[in-house]
Write a sequence for this structure.
């Protein structure tokens, strides 16, 4: 919540009290006072539409499949929609009460506040939890998300799914490289490589070759596991051709990285460090940064400053060595490719092996896309990763 500091705590108290009113309720009790049964029906309908619209864009679907493959506890829109069907008020109330029986709270009180104000907010939360019944969830019972351990191989794992929107002509490709558990040195080397690759990737694939209108590379931080993600959305190239082109880019980029002069390398390093030391543009931006540290259980309140300092020890030779270890097509890598392929546009589309719809899996209709994707994710966990994960990152 955000707003004027003299009203914010009162607003929080009202909303938090409504949440806690679902505690200690049975099926027979029904919804808490002040919530009409008709409102429940409206909310279920809105949620159903949200789940059905999940992954309508090819890029969104590819990202969703990647996340589900990496994180075993994440659920698809189709799985949520299926679970929502037939969820009547008595069952909902019983489940909500069970969820809220024991809870833990992590809070960020940030902005135009002082320490007495923060202590007042903490006391308010504690008193409301005690007065509403229920207990405190022990730390050893806190939910923890585990990340799949991808295999190391010369050949990438490729997951191909059909896009949901039959009218869209966009195919999305995500090429993900898993690096390993979080540590600050690997983190800043990843950032340095992304900084060096992003502009030439966009310039070559988007501007010169016009592979697609969306082309970028970024770092990925998945519950404490680091990696890279190359993403291309195209309406003119096949998923296979796009994947091959990203691989070729990596080969070409390595040659450019080796030939880069020390002066050019240092200028790029300085630019990245300066970017990390930029001040936040708004209070909400700073709050978001702090909250992400809480959510991700890292609790590094000066993460940008610490990363800028760590960059001082990142040499060009180190960057080349890490590129060869993580990304070089000539070596074994931990790599996964997700391809969300559009429907054919015309009788011949997709049959020449070169169009955006080439290689699309066969599904009867859009409603079959959800179960198809869920089956592919399950197969990935069981057959590719053999249900292995990287263990706890933060405790």
């Amino acid at each position: 919540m955000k707003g004027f500091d003299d009203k914010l705590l009162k607003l929080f108290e009202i909303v938090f009290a409504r949440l806690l009113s679902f505690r200690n309720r049975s099926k027979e009790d029904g919804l808490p006072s002040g919530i009409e049964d008709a409102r429940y029906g409206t909310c279920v309908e809105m949620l159903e539409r949200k789940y059905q619209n999940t992954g309508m864009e090819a890029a969104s679907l590819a990202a969703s499949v990647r996340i589900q493959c990496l994180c075993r506890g994440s659920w698809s829109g189709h799985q949520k929609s299926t679970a929502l069907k037939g969820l009547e008020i008595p069952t909902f109330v019983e489940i909500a009460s069970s969820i809220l029986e024991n809870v833990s709270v992590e809070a960020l009180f940030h902005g135009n506040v002082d320490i007495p104000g923060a202590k007042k907010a903490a006391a308010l939360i504690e008193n409301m939890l005690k007065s509403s019944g229920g207990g405190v969830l022990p730390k050893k019972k806190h939910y923890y998300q585990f990340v799949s351990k991808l295999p190391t191989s010369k050949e990438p794992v490729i997951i191909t799914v059909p896009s949901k929107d039959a009218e869209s002509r966009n195919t999305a490709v995500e090429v993900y490289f898993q690096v390993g558990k979080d540590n600050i040195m690997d983190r800043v080397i990843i950032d340095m490589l992304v900084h060096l690759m992003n502009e030439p990737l966009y310039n070559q694939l988007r501007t010169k070759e016009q592979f697609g209108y969306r082309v970028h590379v970024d770092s990925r931080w998945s519950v404490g596991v680091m990696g890279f993600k190359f993403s291309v959305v195209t309406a003119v190239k096949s998923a296979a051709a796009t994947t091959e082109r990203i691989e070729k880019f990596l080969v070409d980029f390595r040659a450019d990285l080796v030939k880069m002069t020390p002066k050019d390398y240092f200028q790029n390093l300085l630019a990245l460090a300066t970017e990390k030391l930029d001040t936040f543009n708004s209070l909400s931006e700073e709050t978001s940064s702090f909250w992400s540290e809480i959510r991700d259980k890292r609790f590094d309140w000066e993460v940008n400053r610490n990363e800028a300092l760590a960059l001082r020890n990142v040499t060009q030779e180190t960057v080349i060595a890490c590129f060869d270890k993580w990304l070089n097509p000539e070596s074994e890598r931990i790599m996964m490719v997700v391809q969300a392929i559009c429907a054919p546009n015309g009788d011949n589309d997709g049959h020449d092996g070169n169009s955006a719809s080439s290689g699309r899996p066969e599904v009867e209709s859009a409603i079959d896309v959800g179960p198809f994707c869920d089956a592919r994710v399950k197969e990935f966990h069981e057959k590719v990763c053999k249900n292995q994960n990287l263990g706890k990152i933060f405790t």
Summary: The domain at 5-141 is CATH 3.30.830.10 (Cytochrome Bc1 Complex; Chain A, domain 1).
